[in-house]
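BUG: 3D viewer hangs when loading the predicted structure for this chain

Environment: internal workstation, default settings.
Expected: structure renders.
Actual: progress bar stalls at 90%.

Input used:
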Amino acid sequence: MSTNLTDRPYLNALADAVLGATPGQLQCSLHVAAEDSTFIRFNHAKVRQATQVSQAYATLTLTQGARCAESTLTLAGDLQSDTALLVAAQSELSRDLPFLPEDPYLLRPDAVVNTSRDEPGDLPSASAVIDAVATHAQGLDLVGFMASGPLVRAYADSRGQRNWHRVDTFSFDWCLYHSTDKAVKALHAGQHWSSDAWANQLQQGAAQLRLLGLPPKTLEPGRYRAYFAPSAVSDLLGTLAWGGFSQKEQAVGTSPLMRLVRGEAALHASVQLTEDTGRSIAPAFTPEGFTGLGPVPLVVDGRHAHSLCSPRSAREFGLPTNGALSSENPQALSLAAGQLPETDVLKALGTGLYISNLHYLNYSDRQHCRVTGMTRFACFWVENGELVAPLQVMRFDDDLLDLLGPRLIALTDRAELHQDTGTYGQRQLASITTPGVLVERFQLTW
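Structure tokens produced before the viewer hung:
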């Protein structure tokens, strides 16, 4: 008889049955990633696709000394058949294990640390989201993708460790389309749905949409005062996350933040960057069973403080691991808010660029942390604190260490959560929390 794949008693019973069958000389662990998700796709403010996905992937890992073997399987939700499937996989791995080479950088947890986090949310039903769109988006060409439901990560091993993480969360990634390449884009995400809050966000987007009908402002390449909305800052920080905070990348000199790490450059003293899983929706443990040691300060007062150190890097470089994933990419990157009132952003900007979103970001010079990309969606020219015209799409190429260093003017007083909306294979638990950023001399190019 099948059961809900995010059900804790089912996953506990599965772990007990499989781990109880582990041969005495081996260590075995089981990591499960599960979800029960509702997906709704909108176009022209109408439902174009709606579906429900319940799935779970179990990764079984067997170790002996410095040898390790693993296998990932899809669970069906039937305890008997799923147990038989995993026990059979365990038997195959145990036969293969003696023939595998030893891994000099293999590190498994020593201490048994049990954790449990279960956060029910106030998630919308499919009908509530559809009704909200039908009520508030009449006459608008709304295009969007809603994903909602519980996400589970669970770990258990033959040493007796148990880790549980279940959060209810949703993300509504949407835009209002105007014409050609003109649109207003926004993300409404969190653990507690509010139709009123989303309707208010939609009204703000509709006001910007009307401005997109004005003749666009074409700028010459050059340096401009600019305000980056939190969504645009999230795009920039997401680019920095590509190896920027990795212990491995920093140790071998390929991190884009090497000048910061070496003390050759510094960010503005107001910049405080932290990997903070405890205040995010990410789990406080890794698929290998390592648990986080609390917030990891990455940049303190504008200067490099720590890196994200995975178990393999810990073994290779003789350092303590701090709960980082094997990729050493942040899962809960947080930029602390500043002092600029959000309501005073346009006044503080004066004349310059209001940048809502960026796209096509990549490094133009990784070693010097130069990033290139394009402005996109609801980016405006501002004069005397007023939005006056949409921007013609422009490319930028700039040094992020300098932009967030001596050229940073202020951070806004409220930080927003930007949840990873990726659904390739499964929904994600990563996020970036950031305020808006006001800078000077932002470089636009051809």
